[in-house]
Amino acid sequence: MLTDILSWAAVMALPGPDIVAIGTQVSRHGHRAGFATATGATVGVATWSILSLAGITALLTAVPALSVILPVLGSSVLIVLGLLAIKGALSAQRAATRATTVNRSSPESSVADLPVPAGSTPGAPATPTTQSTTAAQHAPVWFRAFRLGLITNLSNPKALVFFSSFFTPLMNHYSGVSGKASMLGILLLVSLMIFSAMSIVMKAASHVPAAHHPALKFLPGVVFLIIGTYYLIETIS
Questions:
Q1: Low complexity bias located where (predicted)?
Q2: Which of 44, 65, 102, 122 could form a disulfide with 96 if both were Cys (CB 3.0 to 4.6 A apart)?
Q3: Helix (H, G, I), strand (E, B), or coil: what is residue 177?
Q4: How far is CA 191 from the centre of its chain?
Q5: Taking a C-beta distance cutoff of 8 angstroms, is the pair 7, 134 a contact?
Q6: pLDDT, tens digit (0-9, with 9 covering 90-100), for 166-197
């Protein structure tokens, strides 16, 4: 059991879309948003786990087309998240530039009076949670962070491969409903602990001066875009 838990923890700690999502929320909204994102990612892991135990592998075998369709959809979601993040970074940069220009020309001007694009904060790192709809803009920060973690995890094209090749064989080590349920509970708790630990580490890293370089505002979007594009090309090639 210990070997299975350690192996699971090592896989959960590997850099990927979940870690990027947690990092962007921590840098913009703080550790609470990071924990909310971590919780969303853990719920995503729970969803994939339950689907695997319910026999999603057999379904993919019966309908081979799903093995291509689902990863393509997931890759597309990651690409969209990346584009939204880059768009948000551009909006934040323009707002910050306008604020600087007005402050230089009129010292009495207040930055608070400037029009700021919805969902953007001057000088703040943009994240894939930037939305164009009014409902999304007024949603609580914790809810948007949780939603981002959930969507990011569920849209990861590699999840199908991971849960089919790693999780399912791991769970075969345990018999009975109670045995599998207990192990699943432990693995989900480990996942939440790993993701939460990443949130704490990234919060500490955000205090480093280099972390506030303007170019880093575009990093989350670029990473999502690269990962999504890579997975998409890999799936259809």
A1: 115-131
A2: 122
A3: helix
A4: 14
A5: no
A6: 888 888 888 888 888 999 999 999 999 999 99
